[in-house]
Amino acid sequence: EKAVNLKKDLAEMQEWMTQAEEEYLEKDFEYKSPEELENAVEEMKRAKEDVLQKEVRVKILRDNIKMLAAKVPSSGQDLATELNVVLENYQLLCNRIRGKCHTLEEVWSCWIELLQYLDLETAWLNNLEERVQMTENLPDKLDAVNDALESLESVLRHPADNRTQIRELGQTLIDGGILDDIISEKLEAFNARYEELSHLAVSRQIALEQQLQTMRETDHMLQVLQEDLAELDRQLTSYLTDRVDAFQMPQEAQ
């Protein structure tokens, strides 16, 4: 009777493992939304815990069969053979579920990381757009134009590392067929806005540089003119003070 019960337990254990394999490992999953992916991750975590909890039952079966084999070698030997098959299948099931759980957790982590990088770069784009808008309708003053140019250039000196991470993470998920529609849409919108704002910012930068150069040249010309006028005023004042007749002066002084 002991042998019969143990044989029944082994059969039930094998049946449970077959069902677990069908439920957790053989279904084709399509993760088309973050909710589906998150649910799959949670389901695989529960599956891993469920499978690992059966380890106690497997050990009890193994110990009972060893005890029976020691007492009744003939009955125990057949059960030991079946037990080895169950142990091998159980270990394989544990490894496969652990592997799938780890993979799904990595995929979820990849998705979260992608969203974080997109948030960072979107904040930078918002800042860039604000700085570009600040370059419009500037007062016609050298300091104002110079400050606007330096402010814009400081934002444009933004490293490309985050955009590289976005591209690589997005491509990894898309290649795996995971959230590919959502990710493609997000990347397309981000890249389009990035290209538009970058080109606009660079154009404004060039325009400000040209405006600043023109203003500096004009200021220099005015300064030279003021110096010339001051010198001429000094000379004329000297002539008047000395009561020199205008007709005795050089033509340009007259």
Automatic annotation (TrEMBL):
| Coiled-coil boundaries | 3-64, 215-242
Identify the domain of life. Answer: Eukaryota
Keyword Coiled coil carried by entry: yes
Q: What parts of the sequence cross the membrane?
A: none
Is-annotated flag, keyword Cytoplasm? Answer: no
Q: SMART domains attached here?
A: SPEC
Question: What's the protein name?
Answer: UTRO protein
Please tell me the species this chain comes from: Pelecanoides urinatrix
Q: Which gene encodes it?
A: Utrn_0
